[in-house]
Hints:
The structure is a single chain. This protein is an alpha/beta fold. 37% of the residues lie in helices and 27% in strands. The strands form two sheets. Strands 1-2-3-4-5-7-6 form a seven-stranded mixed beta sheet, with helices on both faces. Helix 5 (107-121) crosses helix 7. It is elongated, with a radius of gyration of 25 Å. The termini are far apart. S-adenosylmethionine is lined by residues 168, 172, 220-222, 225-226, 240-243, 246, 263-264, 281-283, 286.
Amino acid sequence: MVEIWNKSKISKLSLNEKNQWFEVLNDKLEEDRNISLLDPLLKEKQQEIKNDYLTYIDSCAKATNFYKYYILTDNAKIVSVCRINIYDNKFLLEGLQTHKNYLRRGFATKLINEMINDLKIDGITTIYSEARKWNEASNGLQRKLGFIQYGQDEVNILYKLNVEAYLKKQLFDQWASNYNQSVIKSEHQGTYPFAGYSEIKYQIIELITKRRSAKILDMGVGTGEITSPLYNLGYDITGVDISEKMIELAKIEMPKATFIKKEFTEIKSILNSKFDFIIFNYSIHHLSYDRQIDLLKNLNPFLEDSGSIIIGDVSSMTQDEMDRLEQKYNLIWDDEEYYPILKIYQKSNLIELYEIRYMQLNEVAGIYQFRKIGN
Ligand SMILES: C[S@@+](CC[C@H](N)C(=O)[O-])C[C@H]1O[C@@H](n2cnc3c(N)ncnc32)[C@H](O)[C@@H]1O
């Protein structure tokens, strides 16, 4: 369970709560302050450290830069803590610590998940953190959590994390193991969102296999459902996904393919070759329409001259049609997805870069081919 200690809660903390909180942070504090465990004044010095900490927690109730403390409990005992402070309008994650008896059991990650969910509700889009350059464990944890290094100073590596991307990754990691079954179920029922999934898959395979060989970039490769048949036919596959759990499953199907664990919008800086096909199957809808259009533009230089981007997804020709679909599937409609709409692409300057072909496959799904226009 996670408790959030805001200023008002901190001003009312019981001594037991403060003692438990200090217990989590207490480990190796003597070492940090160069105090020998053989020091005859050890007890007094330890008490001094504790007093400092208790004074600090009390001061948070009034500190202007203090935002919130996040406290994870297990059987009513505090096991992991972290706080967010605000410096220069940046929300900085600090003091992430787990009780020494509870290490390596996933408590820190659970705490961070809950914290990020709460920050999302508060409308915070980016959080920052710092780790001492020499602290490998701390740097490893930042990277594992998905923090991206954006700089460094003399002592620290500076990290930042996109809140929305983190939550999306969590969602897909959780979905990975039963993703294929949920697609089959929805397709079988012929309903939103996956009605027509197999037909899209076969259309994509048919289009690509017109060529004997091709380099394919699968954006949002998921479990490899779309590109693994092509991999088995000898096509060269690179899969991109934000979720390592999805990539783990795709790797089982395509052990020699290349995988890139990245957010779509960060991929541009990593790609260094051109592709014959770039596929987004049920994946581009995770970006807003503006970001979809930017991404499709940014990928243009990574397409061979005769190359195409293929998008298969829940789709319609017009906004009105999409609105009607939303009405029909009102109870299960996902408001956070931006399904492709032909008119939106046609009205953008994508038409200067691509010849857009579209086929509506059924009331829910459609398939696009964006053929690169030669210079
Ligand atoms: C609905 S699944 C589709 C998977 C696969 N293309 C298929 O057709 O079965 C969407 C996939 O896109 C990935 N994804 C979603 N948003 C992403 C983003 N912004 N950057 C990278 N991958 C993303 C998810 O992790 C997930 O594996």
